[in-house]
Amino acid sequence: MNFEQMKIFVAAAQYGSFTIAAEKLGLTQSAVSISVKKLEERHGVTLFDRSGRRLAVTEAGQVLLSEAERILRDVELTIRRLESRRTPEDRYPIVACSPNAYDFWMPALVSRIGGAKDMPRIELLRGADDEVKAWVMRGTADVGVTEIAPSHPQFRHLGVFDDRLVLAGAASVAAAAGSPSWSTLPELGPILWEESDLTPLILEALGANGIDARRIAYKSLRLASTAAVAAALEAGRCAGFVAERAVRHALATGALARLGRIEIPLRYWMFSLREREIEAFASLVAKAAQGSGGS
């Protein structure tokens, strides 16, 4: 399997069509079809179910797709890393961020410190906690920013800013809930939160307060981002835990309201390999966070 075959397969899987994949890749439809067919014949598997109007990825195809997407992304990031080292004058740091750090913190903070003397260009990447740590470990990214402090001995980390997970809901939910406490939280019914790297923090807080997460979790709806959870909460059916920074506009406008004073501290960490000096950059980010309402 070569790199070009992998790209063609991923495009066909993503678009569900050899024709559309060919258009996006600048190839003919037959070239895409032949490439996939050769891949299937080489490895003795069927990658697509071609019986419907739209291509459907088979079980074998799903195995390849998950790995191929990761490999292609790693190659893309490696190219970006390589290009960031064209000349000493053009060199710039690549900062990998967890989803919430990327979506709600780092772009604004980098913008605030952009005028600082001698501040170089900064490129931000977005990935899951494990991806961020892997990129920093491999050198694809210079620095990582996540909510979970890295424990690997090759990393050094510094706390840079704080947020908190708060219990929130639509105004109707807040009015009905009154002012709940940890002890009365199970009485609210199903509670929603993002199923992500933040889940262990939430489960730990629930356990510390004697709450069985299985009793209160929203079982029929599992969401993978704070933005998705906030959108569900605004629909007015349930309460949920959300990062305060992510919903500050919704809280300010009344689209969401806090329920009681239930909250879970959320610390963001900047880290790198031990040989890299990040104190100066971390200090700039921390000061920018203080100036933008963070701590």
Question: Can you walk through the features of this model?
Answer:
It is globular, with a radius of gyration of 23 Å. It has helices at 3-15, 18-25, 29-43, 59-83, 99-104, 106-113, 129-138, 171-177, 199-208, 213-216, 226-234, 248-253, 279-291, and strands spanning 48-49, 56-57, 94-97, 123-126, 143-146, 155-169, 191-192, 239-243, 257-273. The protein is of the alpha/beta class and 295 residues long. The strands form 2 sheets. The chain has a 7-stranded mixed sheet. The protein has a two-stranded antiparallel ribbon with strand order 1-2. It contains 13 helices and 9 strands. It folds into 2 domains: 3-81, Winged helix-like DNA-binding domain superfamily/Winged helix DNA-binding domain (Arc Repressor Mutant, subunit A); 89-295, 3-Layer(aba) Sandwich (D-Maltodextrin-Binding Protein, domain 2).
What's this, in brief?
The chain is α/β, with parallel strands linked by helices. It is 45% helix and 19% strand.
Distance between the termini: 50 Å
CATH topology of the largest domain: D-Maltodextrin-Binding Protein, domain 2
Strand content: 15-25%
DSSP E strands, number: 9
Lateral strand order in the biggest sheet: 4-3-5-9-6-8-7
CATH class category name of the largest domain = Alpha Beta
List descriptors:
single chain; 295 residues; alpha/beta; Arc Repressor Mutant, subunit A; D-Maltodextrin-Binding Protein, domain 2; 2 domains; 45% helix
